[in-house]
Amino acid sequence: MRSFIFLFSVLTFSTLEAAPLSLREAVQIALKNSPSLDSKRRDLNISQYKVEDKFAQFLPQLGFKSEHGLDHTVPRRHHNDWRSQAEIELLEKLYDSGRSQSQYSIAKLQRESTDIALSEQRDLLILNVILQFLQVSLKTSLVEGAENKHKAAKKQFDFTNDVFRQGLKRRSDVMRFKAQMERSELAFEQSKVDLALAISSLKVVLGKNSDEAIEFAPFDIEKDGTSFASLIKSSPVILEDYYSVRRLTANKKVQEEKLDLARSVNTPEINLRSSIKYRAENYIGTRSSWDDRGWNYFVGIEVNIPIWDWGINKRNILSNSEQLYQKENDIRAERNSLSDKVTTVHKNLALAEKSYMLIRDLVKIEQDNYTQLDLEYKTAKVSVLDLITATDNLATANTALLQTLYDKIGFQAQLLFYQGRIYDWTHL
Could you tell me the domains of the chain? Predict the structure, then answer.
């Protein structure tokens, strides 16, 4: 009984492992395996550690310090040349002219920028998976189309060759169909190579080895294609909300804080400090070891006034000002670039939708034309060239229809990316 259960479990597991991956499953695998996304997650962890470090500056610091050694002076002033000291200090910096607060604000803004970069990398990865998955589905359909075209060409060749042997067709007709059959076979083989390359590229995006055996399910046009379209209609593209603009805006705020920090160096720095120490001295080599010890409490104000630094801080302020202008230019340039990209995607989507409707009608026309010419050729009413042309036109129209359909879906996915909604799609 146990053997049966074990065998059933193994078979069930194997069946699940062998099941073709859907698009959503492929996205989840990519999110889990992507090295670039993992690096962004670690960048966020690092930025969080830096925030915690800067916050720790506001907290009391506890330290231990000890000194041991020979302290010989000439002329001799001590009976014992050994010097020993140990102290425990609790130190708190109560005020430092706001510089610790500025550094803490910078760390938080840098963490915000890193978090935005992580979300941007995540959505870009999802988009790449979708586009590559669409390519695999398209290439799979094109392989099927090329195979069907090759079978049709072979069928036409066999029919014409049989009729030729009966003396009812010319040899030139047979040779034309043979050439068409060989061309279709070459196209079929090339389509299989294109599919293999598309699958390999998709595996790389998923973080898998290119030689790993993975089967992909066809793209679900009815379900996923419809969900793309519905999300696009529910949310416009807002440039200020796009990841790169938000990230650059956060970087600009970081630079503003750095500029304020540089300017504060020219003002007097006032530090309010307090400390509690417990100190023990000269406890080595004396008869009164550990007798020289006690508590010390200190509260004081430390004032540092910059007088002259040969223009170092002035140049630092100018440098930070120039960098702030650069950040502003980066934001404007990114807005313009993003606006152009979104406009281009909108135009391409509109063209793809219109082209799909036209090509769908064209396919019907080419199909009717091919059916009619095929019948007329068998009754010797049209030439072989007319039938070959009709076959090629039908195959070209079908290929264009598939290409346009997947292009339309790809442009919809790109719009979701620019809207910041592509991650929402994975949870529908």
Answer: 19-59+96-266+306-425 (1.20.1600.10), 60-95+267-300 (2.20.200)
